[in-house]
Amino acid sequence: MHKVLIFIIFTGLGFSSHAVAGYQQEIKTLTDRTQELAGDETGLSDTERFNEMVAIAYDYTMLSFPEFATFLGDPRGQDRWSDNSEAAFAQRNLDQKTFMVGLKTIAREKLSDDNQLNYDLLVERIQSDIDSQQFPEQLLPINQMGGVHQDIAQVLAVVQPKNIQDYNNMISRLEKTPAVINDTIAWMRKGIEAGITPPAITLRDVPQQIRNQLVDKPEQSPMLVSFKTFPASVDALQRESLKMQAVAAYSGRVAPALEKLLEFMENEYLPAARKSIAMGDLPNGKAWYAHKVKQTTTTDLSPEEIHEIGLAEVKRIRAEMDIVIKDSGFEGSFEEFLKFLRTDPQFYHTSKEDLLREYRDIAKRADPEMVKLFYKLPRTPYGIIAVPSYAEKSKTTAYYQPGSVKAGRAGFYFANTYALETRPRWEMEALTLHEAVPGHHFQLAIADELEDVPWFRKTGGHTAFIEGWGLYSESLGEEIGFYTDPYSKFGQLTYEMWRSIRLVVDTGMHQLGWSRQQAIDYFMKNAGKSEHDVIVEIDRYIVWPGQALAYKIGELKIKELRAYATAELGDKFDVRAFHDEVLGKGSLPLSVLEANIKSWVSKSKNSD
Questions:
Q1: Distance of CA 539 to the CA centre of its chain
Q2: Same-domain pairing of 154 and 300
Q3: How distant is the alpha carbon of residue 131 from its chain centre?
Q4: How does pLDDT run across 134-154, given as a tens digit for each residue?
Q5: 453 CB-near residues (< 8 Å, 6+ apart)
Q6: Is there a single domain that holds both residue 115 and residue 88?
Q7: Residues 269-296: pLDDT tens digits?
Q8: Among 166, 407, 477, 516, which residue's beta carbon has the most beta carbons within 10 A?
Q9: Do 8 and 76 belong together in one domain?
Q10: Is 571 a member of any domain?
Q11: Taking the complete model, does pTM exceed 0.85, yes or no?
Q12: Cα(76)–Cα(84) distance, rounded to whole angstroms?
């Protein structure tokens, strides 16, 4: 998965809105209650105080980040965006610390085993966010991968309006868009002053991404997609009025704000953007990158250690690739085989519809095989659709957007149909297993459907676990009848190589002084990906430092734990039970996952 919509509590570069006294008072009431719970006068047990603090954390998050509420199906704040003004941002940072003080007054040993795990995970997340406060991530609100110019349309597209109030809420959000963009520009100006911007080379497509949101006919805007058709619950006479209000909001509020952002981006931001690429080149950049590495991998591995792991994995996988090339009957060098895969017409579709059709066919062939890998199957469905045209040029090959039972929304696997000559068929099986089943759809749907666990256990947040599972899922293909031809098998190895290369080039650029071209050349030399895909990937690693390390580090840990369980349990090992155990507690730091699997193995040994 290249980008899964995962939100972490109490953090986030959100949107902004004018102050609304009602919800702000509710937030203050919650933080005041947190301080009361930290005292000795409540008369509540540690378990009661902890349970109340979990509930407060949920309410605080829904009120502070209504976009997250949209994804979860919570009705609060659906007429506004998150307030990301400087004052609100500073207050949230203080609130994080207030909440941590309250949590630290709870005697962990007095909680049940389940609640001790809940406590550890909540403390770990909030502490990670507090640690992040020393690094000014808020000064980097836009890059080619995302930002306000894409996120507004994305959030509005997720809404599934059922009544007039839902439509009025969406109109209200459209009308409040200028405040969103004004605050974004304010943060970017501060970034220029501090010398903290994305590299200029990675911003080259952002102006066009903004232009893609500026349409001559407002009805064609992706922000107004919900106003094209209405549910039966909305009276026919009111539909035209709602549509006219949405069009007026787009024309009078959204479009002028986007034009202002475009002008700022082209005339002020891009000329001032830095020419270097490494996070290490930013103020306090080396420490910032080390923090990112720790946060995304949930390990204490140093960038140098990860670089060495990557080099070793590249060497191992290359040897496997050579065997597949030999078995395929191809006569020529490794470089010639890569050129063959990149250029031969048999490996490419000529229509977007055919590309999506094959993705759907692969997914449908995988679906019935899931009973061989799991006892517990999610009930949330999923679909496969194209990446929105306004963002497709700079988006990676695919990504997954989680569904929600509460919101009544299916999961969606977004496949990139831009530049068909860069979308080889031989990579499609591995990619589908990663993004859909048994990968991210299974993983995130199972988490969403967990019962009797706190809300934050259902919403992800540990990149190494999430992406490690996605990459591990690719390796399950042979167990369920995929990769039967040498090209698809080479595709699976290419994807594993791709994630290993990430360990080398991400640490190479951000820690070891590699140039962007050096990273591109290393990638092209060792994997069959097209040059366009490679460039998009390298630029992604540049603006998301450390994120790409999570895949291989997480996959290696899951494979290590499977090997451990297989060796320890022998004939008792059941892969379906193992997979249920890996996913059955939601997203976990890798150290917690390891402890949990070893405990499960111990209990399984002693079972009848």
A1: 17
A2: no
A3: 20
A4: 999 999 999 999 999 999 999
A5: 114, 118, 585, 586
A6: yes
A7: 999 999 999 999 999 999 999 999 999 9
A8: 477
A9: yes
A10: no
A11: yes
A12: 17
